[in-house]
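Weekly modeling sync, notes
Attendees: S.R. (lead), two postdocs, one rotation student

Agenda item 3: backlog of single-chain predictions. S.R. asked that every request posted to the team notebook include the full sequence so nobody has to chase files. The rotation student volunteered to paste the first one in as an example of the format we agreed on. Action items at the bottom.

Example entry:
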Amino acid sequence: MAYTSIIPVHRLDNSVDYVLDEKKASRSQNADSLQAAVDYALNKDKTEQDLFCSAIGCTLDSAFEDMCHIKRMWHKEKGVQGFHLVQSFAAGEVTPELAHQIGQELANRLLGGRFQVVVATHLNTECLHNHFVVNSVSFVDGKHYYDNKANLRLLRKRSDELCREYSLSVIEHPSGRKKPYALYQAEKQGRPTRDNVVR
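Predicted structure, as returned to the notebook:
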């Protein structure tokens, strides 16, 4: 099931560095065993495809500088510098290649080719997940991308659409009122709450 979130970024350089961390986005850095690492290292045809990182509207080598250039061009260098979006998949549900492909498609559908974005698929946890760093300023018209409920709903909707297209699970959002986070955490940790004491 895909999980999504949006995080405002005030230090764009740190976010880009985190997302493009080769230790997290490289299969050889996350091999299950020594044998798998040796087998992979000996297959030179796949070595260049090992890193699951790509860029839209900028280049990987100079993504931070490219994003700063757009901000200077539109005179919008203050405030939120970008956004860090996350899309996570259920354990064992996708391959790194498919996860990265879905990440690229999500970036294109969500941002419509208006914003620079770096997409990296991290393989360092049981659940493969995509990280996106989005420039807060559009290179097309200089307008801002905003972190609001409507954009978060749109991110979830586009992510869920893609997951369904690829026959992957999605988190079904039940209608109605959500539990307060403190109550959810208490129940998750097995602590007594007013609800489970009454039950």
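Discussion: group reviewed the output briefly. Strands lie at 3-9, 53-56, 82-88, 117-122, 129-135.
Action items: rotation student to repeat for the remaining queue; S.R. to check formatting next week.
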